[in-house]
Amino acid sequence: MAELVGLVQRLEVAVGRLEDMSSSGGHGVILLLFLFSSAVSVYVVAYDNLISGPVAQYTALSQKIGGDVQKHAELMKQAFSCQRQLLVTASSSQKPSDSVLTSLLAPMSKVIQEVQSFREKNRSSPLFNHLSAVSESVPALGWVAMAPKPGPYVKEMQDAAMFYTNRVLKDYKEKYVSVCDVKQLVLTFSCAQFVPHASENKFPKYFNILVSQGPVASGGAPSGGAPAPPPPGPPPPPMNLDKSSSGDSGATSHNALFASINKGADITKGLKHVSDDQKTHKNPTLKVQGGPLPSGPKPFAARPTAAASPARTLPPVLELDGKKWKVENQEGAHGLVISDTELKQVVYAFKCNNSTLQVKGKINSIILDNCKKLGLVFDDVVGIVEVINCKDVKVQVMGKVPTISINKTDGCHVYLNKDSLSCEIISAKSSEMNVLVPNKDGEYTEIPVPEQFKTVWDGSKLVTTATEIAG
């Protein structure tokens, strides 16, 4: 905000100088008109400050780290550039049709997908947490499609990345560059919240504030294409319930109805008498013979619905791809075993249901993603075991593991042994988590992981503790 104030002050000074120049000739007036004709909207200026400030610092720090982080940052730079072009287009055009707006958003959406795909393709990277922090927060650039207030959406995406940013801050606390990189990333998307709120009365309405007067934005279609169809006409007037298509017949029928009701008990005098031999409950044979039953309209017969197409199932996978053991789409497989392992390898289990997986030997890391009712048993992991987007899974440690991460998971039981009691368990957005620790007699004691917390201000900082009823 201070930079915007400074920019306005500099513009005021420039205008004052041009006014002085205009008193001695017409060149100053011409230059003044040029200045305002070429000026960009105030929110584009605010966005430029974001790119030249936090985004540029984030890119520079990522270059110092190098490797996958640097490549990831280059993709992020493209994403911010695409969004700036979108804002420039919006600043000088009216709201386009939905199809054209989708085509305008397409370049930015494509880069966002590339940012997320880069993280998925590099799960074995030693900088995986860096990549995850960026991948989880990059959807914040979709604030332009959020209505009516995009700011909370950006904040939600920032919170989604906080799990991984905290991991990096913890794991790289001795490496100043990495710490700065993460803090700068959080700062970048904190500043990005400012963009939707900067000069709100200057924003285009289809970015939730105000339509600018200009030509309709084009999504890059050929110039010879057919013009957009005209907007639909006004809705039809509300139906007048007092009138019908037959003139006064509606009012007449209403009067007849009320007259019948006013008859009271006499209203039944016009009903036809039904003798006992015509009553089906006293003459069951009428139901079979089809006797003098009143022939009313046939009941409505629902149209036969087409059989639902079976869900497409992907073939199960259990293979070593480079350094990654891929275990995918396993259904009811209770004898999955990975035995020929090496320290540099990782295991990635995806969409495995009602199955059991045993990993023998010492391995780098294990990831369970989108699995249901999966049982995992492993010997030793030198890195981390991650449980993401799973439901009702069980994890048993036979040897040692330094960290187990549980994220966006409902139902997770972790069985530790005496050698893994020092394991750190990190959880976020999860429920029904239990850790089972062995007793001296070989039995297990089940301890719930807290899900509810209490936060208080102690005068200098926030202090968060698990509540007594948690778990």
TrEMBL record:
Keywords: Cell membrane, Membrane, Transmembrane, Transmembrane helix. InterPro entries: Adenylate_cyclase-assoc_CAP (IPR001837), Adenylate_cyclase-assoc_CAP_C (IPR013912), Adenylate_cyclase-assoc_CAP_N (IPR013992), C-CAP_CF_C-like (IPR017901), CAP/MinC_C (IPR016098), CAP_C_sf (IPR036223), CAP_CS_N (IPR018106), CAP_N (IPR053950). Residues 298-312 have a biased composition (Low complexity). Its main location: membrane. Residues 227-239 have a biased composition (Pro residues). GO terms for cellular component: cytoplasm; plasma membrane. Residues 315-449 form the C-CAP/cofactor C-like domain. Residues 242-254 have a biased composition (Polar residues). It is a peripheral membrane protein. The keyword Transmembrane helix applies. Signal peptide: none annotated. It is found in: Cell membrane. One of its GO terms (molecular function) is adenylate cyclase binding. Gene3D superfamilies: 2.160.20.70, Adenylate cyclase-associated CAP, N-terminal domain (1.25.40.330). The chain crosses the membrane at residues 29-47. One of its GO terms (biological process) is cell morphogenesis. Residues 218-254, 274-312 are annotated as: Disordered. Belongs to the CAP family. This is Adenylyl cyclase-associated protein. It comes from Sinocyclocheilus rhinocerous.
